[in-house]
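To the team - aspartic acid complex, inputs and output below.
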Amino acid sequence: MRTLTLATADKTGETVTLSGWVVARRDHGKLIFLDLRDRSGVVQIVIVPKSSAYEIAKTVRPEWVLQIKGEVSGRPADMVNPELPTGHIEIKAEEITVLNEAATPPFDPREDTTAINEETRLKYRYIDLRSERMQRNLRLRSDFVQKCRDYLFSRDFLEIETPLLTKSTPEGSRDFLVPSRQYPGKFYALPQSPQQYKQLLMTSGFERYFQVARALRDEDLRADRGFEHTQIDIEMSFVEREDVMAEIEAMMTKVVEAMGYKIKEKPFPRFSYREAVAKFGADKFDLRSEAEKKAGVLAYSWVVDFPFFEKADGGGWTFTHNPFSMPKPEFLEDHLAGKKIPEILTTQYDLVCNGFESGGGSIRAHRPEILEATYRVMGYSPREIEDSVGHILSAFRYGAPPHGGIALGVERNLMNLTGESYLREVQAFPMTGAGHTAVMDAPTPATPAQLNELGLSVKLPKK
Ligand code: ASP
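Output:
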């Protein structure tokens, strides 16, 4: 039905049919020029007077959707545009069909839309996404995810989906709750990560799992953090810390090098948490020189040996990273006994790249008494432990293998690959900084009928 604009580059002399959007119209004396955009790029169309195409071409405006039939012909030497893959040819239009007209867009997707007011950009996100920058970013995102998938499949991982409606669990952030119609007064929680399900999959013997998973956390929004993000979530059985780190390092290297990026240092340098804080003042840092920043180099490193626990706000202890982690083997005895708590180090490893945490994971406490000890340190009574993680303790009593894993943040990795400073530049439909969804403007009130069905009444906070 159509030829892509990019494919016209080597079709001189042939008649083609193109479909796409008008980027611009230029009336040059008698000739009319159109730039037509499709997913592959842009091509120049030329329309000569006294043709039926000419009458239509006179009326078309930017962002109209057209089908154009015409002959690919070489441009005169002085008209060649070396910047464009199709810059040496143009299409001599014979027929133009208007597939749809377009209202004047609220902003011009040919310009740098990052300068446009955020509310407007996200309200009209479908237009914003036409911009070259957003097209490039989302293509890069798809490419990154596909290459991770390809790598993981080549290494015998299985892709398994886990539920979105699940139970509220202690993972450090506030849950999004979903009221239950069948059980008024009860709530599902949206997953902060597939952490527990992937551990159950290890218990089931799948041994190597991954998922391109949505994770939802009701946290304060920041430049690099939204309510929803996607993670490449991975878990492996019969592994130690070194095995997981080696697998992930191999994957990241293969993926980003295949995408044409340069990695500053291989193998990735390692820092203990203590070293990182002493050297960089934080556990996320940027190892690149100014020149490397300009060249888009990726500087990965690992941070390991984090303290397992830290003082909780209300006194007592809480976990620093992940309550399901295994302490480092040399601290296991103290951990089980609840002794020397501030000294206990966890098997957690964080992958840092260009100042962001690009991933993090750990070896897990796969024996029930180790997980129980973690919760005891955090002040949980046996009853509270049972309520909170009883299901997973029970699973671990049925032959859970040693296992560990990691989650890589897709958006943060894409921010590094694109050089973008905001999460919204690498997500198709992000939220505004004020927490409104793009285009559709949620959250909205529920109708009385909906509330009634859910057994809920709304009590608004006093202003
Ligand atoms: N569940 C962790 C997270 O989402 C990652 C992991 O330990 O695998 O950050």
